[in-house]
Design a protein that fits this description.
about 675 residues; Aspartate Aminotransferase, domain 2; 21 helices; 20 strands
Length: about 675
C-alpha cells in the first residue's frame, strides 16, 4: 500500500471530442451561455450526491444545492423565513400545486428562462404544505422507516423523492443569476452556429475507434474531477471517490453531449429523445415494438409512476398484493406501502443478501393458485436488481420464471445494476425496469422507466404530461444515451472484471484490519462472490459509521457514505436491531432531529477507481481503527454531528472554506 501525496492542485481537461465544438451565434446571449457552461463545468469538478455523503465533494455539492434555494428566493424577492423551496420535475410540480392554495406559492422554471433543464422551483409557505404521506415517496422522503411506521422528513426533502436533479438545479440557479445580469430574455433565443445531429452528439467522439479496456483507460483520464487535490490532516491529497452507489461523476464526453444539446434547436432535441429511446432499447434489450421508454427525473420517480399506474388498474373482485423483499431501497418499498387497498408482502433475505426462490414460489402459489387468502392475489413482484447495502445481485431470470408461472408481473429496480452488469429485459421477461442516469456516469437529472406496452394505465392527457415532463430535460437524456453508448463500448465483461478485482482487494484488506466487521459476502473464494458487486459495508468497534466516514475524509480525502442508505429495513436486519430498540430510535430521532443513528459505513466502487484508491483507503482506515481501539466507547459520539475525542487540527474549517470558494466560483462571474 502507498501513502504518497500528489502535489498537483487542480487538473483541468480541455474538451476531449473530435467534433468541432458548436460556436454560439454572436449576440447578447454569448456571454451568458459561456458563463453558464463554465459554472456547470466547475460544479462537476467537485460533484457528489448530497446531504448524507462524507468528504469534500459531498460538502461542496450539498452547499451548492442548498444555495440554489436561496437564489430562487432572491429571484422571486421572497423572505427565507417561513418559505420552503422545492425542486420538482414539471409533472411533480403540477401534482404539488394541485394540493396548494393558489396564493400560497410562487414558481419559476427553466422553461420560463428558455432552457431545457426540466426544473421547476416552487417557493411555498411552509404552513400551506400538505401533511401526512407525501404524494411521491422513496429515497430522501423519510427520516426513519420501520415495518409498521414511517417518520417522514421535513420540507423540502419530503417532497423531493429520490436523488434530485442536482447538477441541473445548480445550472438553473446559475441561470437565474445570469438573467439578473444580462436580462430576462438572454436565453430565449440561444443557439449554435453549427447544428449537430443526434448521431453526432450521441455516437461521435475522439475515442469512437477504440473499445474494451483501452477505451476504459482513456475514459478514466476524462473523468471530471480527477486530479483535484484537497486539504487533509496530512496535507494536499487527490480526492478519492468511493461512493459510486450514491452517484457517479461524469465522463467528459458525456458533459460535452449535454452542453452541445442545449444549443440545438427543438427538432434536434426531438431526434435526441427518439435516439436515446433506441439506445435504451438496444443496450438493455427492450425492443421498442414491445416496450415503451418513459423518461423521468430518477429511479424513484419511475417506480412511483409504475405504482400509480398499478393503482389505476381496476380488477373487479380482486384485492391486489405486491411482493418485494427486505433488501429494497426505500424507493422500491415506500411507493407500494403507500398505495391504498394494496397489501405489501416483504420476503426475507439471508445474511449475505440473497433471496430464496422457494420463498417467492411459496407465496405466489398460496395466493394465486391455492387461493388461501380470499380475494387477495399477487399481481406484482417488485425487486431490486442489486442491493445497495450488501451488493448482492438477484437472479432475475429465475425470479421472472416463477413470477410469470403464477400469473404475476415483475418490476426491477435496476438503479444499482445498469452500470455494473448486463441487463436483459426481454430475455428475463421483465415487465417494468427503472434506473437512473446519475448512477451511470451521467449525473444530469434523468432516469427511465422501461415498461411493456399496454401496462401503463393513465388517461391520454395524463400520459402526455408524463412523457413531456421527463423529455423536457433533453440534456439529461443526451447524457444518459451517451453514457450507455460508452459503457456498451467498454463492455460489461471488462467492467465486471475490473470491479471484481477491486472488490476482492477491498474485502481482503478489510479482513486484515483488527475489529472491522464486514457484512454480506466476505470471502473472495465464496461460490457467491461472482454474484456480488462492488458495494461493501462494514463497522468498526468504538466508532460509529458517520464518525468513521468523517475521519476518512479528514485524514485521507476519501469520500464514502455512512448511515442507513435509504434501506432502513435491511440495515437494521444486518445490525440485528430488535423491535424495542427500533422504537427507541424513533423516539430519539423525534427528540434530537440531528442525531446520527447507528448505521453502517459503505464503500462502493466504480470504473473510475484504481488499486491505488483502494490501498489508500485501507491504509487510512487501518490508522483510524488503531486509534479507535484505544478510545473509550461513547455511544453518543455522533449526537449533534459532533465527534469528540478526535483532534481535527482545523481540517473542518479548511473543508468549509474549500466549499465556500467553490460556491463563489460557480455562482458568480470571475473578476
Amino acid at each position: 500500500m502507498t501513502n504518497k501525496v500528489s502535489k498537483e492542485t487542480v487538473v483541468n481537461f480541455a474538451p476531449d471530442n473530435a467534433l468541432k465544438e458548436p460556436a454560439l451565434n454572436c449576440n447578447e446571449n454569448t456571454g451568458a451561455f459561456v458563463e453558464l457552461e463554465r459554472g456547470v463545468r466547475a460544479a462537476l469538478e467537485t460533484y457528489s450526491n448530497v446531504h448524507r455523503g462524507s468528504g469534500y465533494y459531498s460538502m461542496v455539492t450539498t452547499m451548492l444545492f442548498e444555495q440554489a434555494r436561496d437564489i430562487v428566493l432572491e429571484h422571486l424577492d421572497l423572505n427565507k423565513d417561513g418559505t420552503a423551496v422545492i425542486f420538482c420535475s414539471p409533472r411533480r410540480a403540477e401534482i404539488l400545486k394541485a394540493s396548494l392554495r393558489p396564493t400560497s406559492y410562487q414558481s419559476v422554471s427553466s422553461r420560463d428562462l428558455g432552457l431545457p433543464f426540466g426544473v421547476v422551483a416552487l417557493a411555498v409557505d411552509r404552513g400551506a404544505l400538505p401533511r401526512g404521506v407525501p404524494f411521491q415517496t422513496g429515497g430522501g422522503t423519510a427520516r426513519l422507516v420501520s415495518p409498521g411506521w414511517v417518520i417522514w422528513a421535513n420540507a423540502p426533502d419530503r417532497f423531493e423523492a429520490g436523488t434530485p436533479a442536482i447538477v441541473m438545479i445548480i445550472a438553473f440557479a446559475r441561470s437565474l443569476r445570469l438573467v439578473q445580469q444580462y436580462g430576462k430574455d438572454v436565453f430565449q433565443n440561444m443557439s449554435a452556429s453549427q447544428i449537430l445531429s443526434a448521431v453526432d452528439i450521441l455516437y461521435h467522439d475522439e475515442q469512437e475507434s477504440i473499445s474494451g479496456k483501452e477505451l476504459l483507460e482513456k475514459l478514466r483520464q476524462t473523468m471530471i474531477g480527477r486530479g483535484v487535490c484537497i486539504p487533509t490532516a496530512s496535507g494536499l491529497r487527490p480526492f478519492i471517490n468511493l461512493d459510486n452507489a450514491a452517484s457517479t461523476p461524469a465522463f467528459l464526453p458525456v458533459w460535452d453531449a449535454v452542453w452541445k444539446t442545449w444549443l440545438q434547436p427543438r427538432q434536434i432535441h426531438m431526434e435526441i429523445v427518439a435516439e436515446v429511446k433506441a439506445i435504451c432499447a438496444l443496450v438493455l434489450n427492450a425492443p421498442l415494438k414491445h416496450f415503451d421508454v418513459i423518461f423521468t427525473s430518477n429511479t424513484t420517480e419511475a417506480i412511483n409512476l409504475a405504482a400509480e399506474s398499478f393503482f389505476n388498474e381496476n380488477e373487479p373482485g380482486i384485492e391486489p398484493v405486491v411482493v418485494n423483499t427486505l433488501m429494497e431501497h426505500n424507493s422500491n418499498e415506500l411507493p407500494w406501502r403507500a398505495l391504498p387497498g394494496v397489501s405489501l408482502i416483504r420476503l426475507p433475505v439471508d445474511r449475505e443478501g440473497f433471496l430464496d426462490l422457494d420463498d417467492v414460489e411459496t407465496v405466489l402459489r398460496a395466493y394465486n393458485q391455492e387461493n388461501r387468502y380470499g380475494r387477495k392475489r399477487v399481481r406484482l413482484v417488485a425487486v431490486t436488481g442489486a442491493s445497495n447495502i450488501l451488493g448482492a445481485f438477484n437472479d432475475l431470470a429465475a425470479i421472472s420464471r416463477v413470477t410469470h408461472q403464477y400469473g404475476a408481473r415483475l418490476l426491477v429496480d435496476a438503479a444499482q445494476m445498469v452500470a455494473h452488469r448486463r441487463v436483459d429485459v426481454e430475455g428475463c421477461e421483465i415487465d417494468y425496469l427503472a434506473f437512473s442516469a446519475h448512477k451511470v456516469y451521467a449525473p444530469f437529472g434523468s432516469g427511465a422507466l422501461l415498461v411493456r406496452k399496454g401496462l401503463l394505465n393513465f388517461p391520454p392527457e395524463e400520459l402526455e404530461l408524463i412523457r413531456s415532463s421527463g423529455e423536457e430535460n433533453v440534456g439529461g437524456i443526451a447524457a444518459m444515451g451517451k453514457a450507455l453508448v460508452l459503457i456498451q463500448r467498454i463492455g460489461w465483461d471488462v467492467i465486471q472484471e475490473e470491479e471484481r478485482a477491486l472488490t476482492e482487494r477491498v474485502l481482503s484488506g478489510l479482513a486484515q484490519i483488527p475489529g472491522v466487521t464486514i457484512y454480506g459476502v466476505r470471502e473472495p473464494g465464496s461460490p457467491r462472490f461472482k454474484q456480488k458487486g462492488g458495494v461493501i459495508i462494514f463497522t468498526l468497534p468504538k466508532i460509529m459509521a458517520p464518525q468513521a466516514a468523517r475521519e476518512l475524509a479528514e485524514q485521507g480525502g476519501i469520500g464514502i457514505r455512512a448511515g442507513c442508505h435509504c434501506a432502513h429495513l435491511m440495515v437494521k436486519r444486518v445490525l440485528g436491531v430488535p423491535p424495542l430498540l427500533e422504537q427507541f430510535q424513533g423516539a430519539m430521532l423525534n427528540l434530537f432531529p440531528r442525531i446520527s443513528l447507528p448505521g453502517v459505513a459503505r464503500v462502493s466502487l466504480g470504473i473510475e477507481n484504481s488499486a491505488e484508491d483502494v490501498d489508500t483507503f485501507l491504509l487510512v482506515l487501518a490508522q483510524i481503527a488503531s486509534k479507535a481501539a484505544t478510545r473509550k466507547s461513547n455511544p453518543f459520539a455522533d449526537l449533534q454531528n459532533s465527534a469528540p475525542g478526535y483532534p481535527r487540527s482545523g481540517i473542518q474549517q479548511q473543508m468549509k472554506e474549500f466549499a465556500r470558494v467553490a460556491g463563489k466560483n460557480i455562482y458568480t462571474q470571475p473578476g
